[in-house]
C-alpha cells in the first residue's frame, strides 16, 4: 500500500511542467554561478578546490531551497486539503503517510540538486580535466544536507499553521545569503567558504572545517529533523 502511495506521490510531484521548469532554472543558475563566480577560484584557491566547490553550492543553494519550499507548499494547498480529508477517512496511519509525503519531497529535492552536481562534474572534467571528485563530497554534503533539513523543518512546521508562512520563508532564503553571518551560524556557508581560507595565510590551503562549524551544521540539521517529525505529528490548525 505504502509503495503504491509513494509511486503516486512521486508521479504527482515530478511528472509536470512545473518540475521541468525548476530543472531548467537550476541548470541555468548553476551555469551562471560556475562561469562567473567559481571559474577563477574562491579565496585564491583553485576552481576545483573544496573551498570553491563549497562556495558554488552555497550560491546555488537558495534556488534549491526555494524549490524545496515550493514542494512543501503543495502539501498545504486547498487541493491537497481535499486529498487529506479523503486519506483521513482511510485506515492509513497518518504519521506514516505524512512521512511518506515528506520522503517524496526529499526525493524531488535530490533530483533537483543533481543538476548542479552533474553540471559541475561535466564542467570540471571538460575545462580542467579534473576527475578527483572524492575530495568534493564533504563540502557538498555539509552545505546541502543541514540546510535542507533545517529549511524543510521550518517550512513544514510553518505550513501547518498557514501556507503564507512558506512563501515568506522563500524571501528570507533568497536574502539571507547576502547577510555576513558568523561561521558557526552561516546556514548556507557562503561567508565561511569565501572568507575562512583567507584567514589561514596559506597558499591553496587544504580543505578543513573547524569543529565549531561542524557543530553548528549538526545543530541545524538536528533541529530541522526534529521539526520535520513534529510537523508530521501536529494537527493542522
UniProtKB/TrEMBL annotation:
Keywords for the protein's UniProt record, in alphabetical order: Membrane, Transmembrane, Transmembrane helix
Q: Tell me the first and last residues of the signal peptide.
A: none
Q: Does the keyword Lipoprotein apply?
A: no
For this protein, the parts annotated as crossing the membrane are 12-31, 56-76, 102-124, 130-152, 164-183, 207-230
What is the name listed in the Swiss-Prot or TrEMBL entry for this protein? ABC-2 family transporter protein
Supply the source organism for this entry.
Candidatus Clostridium helianthi
Amino acid at each position: 500500500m505504502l509503495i503504491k502511495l509513494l509511486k503516486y506521490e512521486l508521479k504527482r510531484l515530478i511528472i509536470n511542467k512545473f518540475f521541468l521548469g525548476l530543472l531548467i532554472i537550476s541548470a541555468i543558475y548553476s551555469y551562471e554561478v560556475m562561469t562567473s563566480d567559481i571559474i577563477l577560484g574562491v579565496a585564491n584557491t583553485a576552481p576545483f578546490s573544496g573551498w570553491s566547490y563549497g562556495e558554488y553550492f552555497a550560491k546555488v543553494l537558495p534556488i534549491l531551497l526555494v524549490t524545496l519550499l515550493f514542494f512543501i507548499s503543495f502539501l498545504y494547498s486547498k487541493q491537497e486539503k481535499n486529498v487529506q480529508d479523503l486519506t483521513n477517512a482511510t485506515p492509513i496511519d497518518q504519521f506514516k503517510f505524512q512521512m511518506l509525503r515528506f520522503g517524496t519531497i526529499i526525493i524531488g529535492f535530490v533530483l533537483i540538486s543533481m543538476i548542479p552536481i552533474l553540471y559541475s562534474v561535466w564542467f570540471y572534467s571538460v575545462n580542467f580535466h579534473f576527475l578527483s571528485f572524492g575530495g568534493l563530497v564533504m563540502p557538498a554534503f555539509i552545505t546541502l544536507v543541514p540546510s535542507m533539513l533545517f529549511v524543510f523543518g521550518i517550512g513544514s512546521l510553518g505550513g501547518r499553521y498557514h501556507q503564507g508562512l512558506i512563501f515568506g520563508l522563500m524571501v528570507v532564503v533568497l536574502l539571507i545569503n547576502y547577510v555576513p553571518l558568523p561561521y558557526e551560524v552561516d546556514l548556507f556557508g557562503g561567508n565561511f567558504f569565501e572568507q575562512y581560507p583567507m584567514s589561514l595565510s596559506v597558499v591553496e590551503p587544504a580543505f578543513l572545517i573547524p569543529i565549531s562549524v561542524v557543530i553548528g551544521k549538526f545543530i541545524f540539521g538536528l533541529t530541522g529533523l526534529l521539526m520535520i517529525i513534529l510537523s508530521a505529528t501536529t494537527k493542522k490548525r
